[in-house]
Amino acid sequence: MSESGFSSGLAVQDNDTAGQPKPGARILIVEDDFEIARMLGETLVEGGMAVEIAESGAEMDVLLRNRVFDLIVLDVMLPGEDGLSICKRLRLETTIPILMLTALGEEVDRVVGLEIGADDYVTKPFSARELTARIRALLRRTAYPSQERARPKIMRFNGWRIDPIRRQLHDPSNARVATTTHEFDLLLAFCRNAGRVLSREQLLGVTHAGLAGPIERSIDVHVSRLRQKIEKDARDPVLLKTVRLGGYLFTATVEEA
Amino acid sequence: MKTLLRRLVPQSLRVQLMAIILVAMLVVIVIGSAFERITNSGYVPDMEIVAERAGVVAALLRQAPAEERAVILKAAKDAGLDFRLLSLEQLAGTSSPQQRTTMGRIINTLFPPDREPPLGGRWLMISDQPALVFTLDQGTAAALFGAPDTLLTSQFVSPATYYLLALVVLFVLFSFFAVWAVTDPLKRISAAVGSAELDNDDELFVERGSIEMVGLARALNTMRARIRTMIDNRTRMLRSVSHDLRTPLTRLRLRAERMDDGVLRGAMLSDIGHIEGLIDETLTYLRHDVSTEELQRADIASVLQTVCAEFTDVGFSVSYTGPDRLPGWCKPNALARAITNLCDNGVKFAPNVKVVLTATDEAALIEVIDNGPGIPETVRARVFEPFYKVDASRGANAKRGFGLGLSIVADIVHGHGGIIELDDNRPTGLVVKVDLPRGLVAAQAMP
User: Fold this and answer.
1) B252 contacts chain A (CB < 8 A)
2) Is B258 within 8 Å of chain A by CB?
3) N or C: which end of chain A has fewer CB within 10 A?
4) Measured between beta carbons, which residues in chain B are less than 8 angstroms from residue A106?
5) Contacts of residue A178 in chain B, CB cutoff 8 Å?
């Protein structure tokens, strides 16, 4: 139901242990509906995290002044200052990961949310399990000290343009090419790791495909669909090469623009 | 200059009508009296007088003995009547002038002589000259040359003048007036009504013309604004209801997830999922993706491939047949939503769904074909109506949407300037045909 944001495909880690969130991550939930906040909090605590709850932007400010948090779950619709404005304000002072919660499932809001600096986006009604998974993914991602924390930028390869925020792909003639979520996530991962061989396991982690059901072979299906869209001849791939026993290699030169 | 003209022209249709009548009367009086002066001045021959005189002379000639005829002829010639005596044999073989020339025949038909030539006289052509001929006795006839033979006789001109003029002037003035003051503005208004789009902001009816037309345009504009406000209010209400439902629904879902009873939890989560689906459907319908998303250059084939892939990924048999690439102008998100809805319907009733794309230079024909039970012809026209469900009777089995799916599809297709049709699949099943214009101009030129 919810959008997958651009959390996926940011980076593929060679070393699996480096990406684990540290135990006892401190989460701040900013949500005016107390029941939701409480139940969400309980689930997260059961998952081994420490949780504080703020019901408004002002309460959040007080908590932030006195405590240190690893991640903020921020509701968009809040009494007083709304979530978007809080997010914008927070981004000026801190790089703390922000996960937006909202009832607005609309594309525009998602894009606005991500553009003003939210790191991921979950639409209400969400399941606690899904949200926990997203929080973990976000924590794992932000645990890398690298350039991956930088805002996602539009990238180009061979005349193609890929926009991670709007999740749009344009071909060299500037026509929009539609992709499935998995295809886009894969392509994004390939672009960010151009010239490196990516294993199927690594790609599986990237596409959330693991959540839907662990079908490793499905990576091959997604890759072949992707080839059909971006290769001149899908049977003789030039951009997306199969590496025997290894996985896949993206050969194009990718530049940020 | 223009403002001056505008100030001079009366603004009300009623006053304009009266002004037209006054102007027409004035024109009739002025031109009519001018005509009268010309007629009376003698430039236009008075046929009646000529005929009468000729008749008198002919009667005199008939009575007079042969030697006196010369005297009478001379006297007549002095009076301006050029009579000549001819033998009847000379007259044989001549014809009447009007019958000879085409023009004469036409004139004769259009304006049949409402006055016979004077008693005993007739028109003949003698050595290519029209002459008024009177038979005097067995052997001789008198022919009057130089008598006017034209239409433009006082007979014709003088009494008809006023009627004709009044008729022509009124007719001409009224037609111009009707076109300018009534027909054109009405045409403008009906054209505007025809192309009316409720959510478009610019003023639909131009408030221009006579007071009555301005009033009509203003009333229509107000009505449109009121309808729009009404619809907007309803939409806002429905939207906020749907939105506000999401918060309690989130609570419900979180609570259900924390329940211990696995069976009950599963059932509740499935119900919650169903409600979520309904809310999503409603919001999609209300959101007007079609009107907000911009037409852009996009690969139509990739949109269809993507939709099919998404269905395949969750285990449905939905296949794509068609070109690998098909660039065109469309609203990719809206189009994807439309095809998704169609496939959604398909997989509900049929084991296999095919999406077929065929392209011409101007258009892309998308067919979503299933081998399910199909839709009976009698209800086909209604399936695009919002909240209409074919299986409304199958209440318990209707674990489905609100019946907005196809309405959303129809909205999206029409938003592309396209056409949507339902057809039978052989041996069973339904074919939904969506015909989309591919070009930028074609897609934008829709009403």
Assistant:
1) yes
2) yes
3) C
4) 287
5) 298-299, 302-303, 305-306, 332, 336
Of B253, B258, B298, the CB nearest to A176: B298
Nearest Cα neighbor of A150 from A199, A91, A103, A190 is A91
With CA atoms as reference, report the closest residue to B248 among A128, A36, A122: A36
User: What pLDDT, in 10s, does the model give residues B350-407?
Assistant: 889 999 999 888 889 999 999 888 888 888 888 888 877 776 544 434 456 677 888 8
What is the reported pTM?
A: 0.62
Close Cβ partners of A106 (under 8 Å, ≥ 6 residues apart): B287
CB B335 within 8 A of CB B348: no
Q: Which residue of A has its CA nearest to B332?
A: A178
CA end-to-end span of chain B = 37
CB contact under 8 A, B250 and A42: no
Q: How far apart are CA A144 and CA A49, in angstroms?
A: 19
CA of B254, closest CA in chain A: separation in Å? 6
Q: Classify A245 as helix, strand or coil.
A: coil
List Cβ neighbours of A115 (8 Å cut-off, separation of 6 or more). Answer: A165
Q: How many CA atoms lie within 13 A of B251 on its CB side?
A: 12
Find the CB nearest B254 among A40, A180, A212. A40
Which long-range contacts link A13-20 to residues 24+ away (Cβ below 8 Å)?
A13/A144, A13/A202, A18/A143, A18/A144, A19/A140, A19/A141, A19/A143, A19/A144, A20/A140, A20/A143
Q: What is the DSSP letter of B117?
A: P
Tokens for B62, please give them.
Answer: 């008939």
Cβ–Cβ below 8 Å for A124 and B247 = yes
Side chain identity, residue A215:
I
Which chain B residue has the Cα nearest residue A41? Answer: B254
A188-235 pLDDT, tens per residue?
889 988 888 888 888 877 765 444 444 556 788 888 889 989 988 888
Pick from A176, A180, A232 the residue to mutate for testing the B interface (most B CBs within 10 Å). A176
A47: CB partners within 8 A, 6+ apart: A132, A136
d(CA B46, CA B55) in angstroms, rounded, equals: 14
Contact: A178, B299; criterion CB under 8 Å: yes
Q: How far apart are CA B279 and CA B249, in angstroms?
A: 10
C-alpha dihedral, B53 to B59 to B60 to B65, nearest 10°: 150
Contacts of B276 in chain A (CB under 8 A): 1, 125
- Burial of B229 per CB tally in 10 Å (0-12, 13-18, 19+): exposed
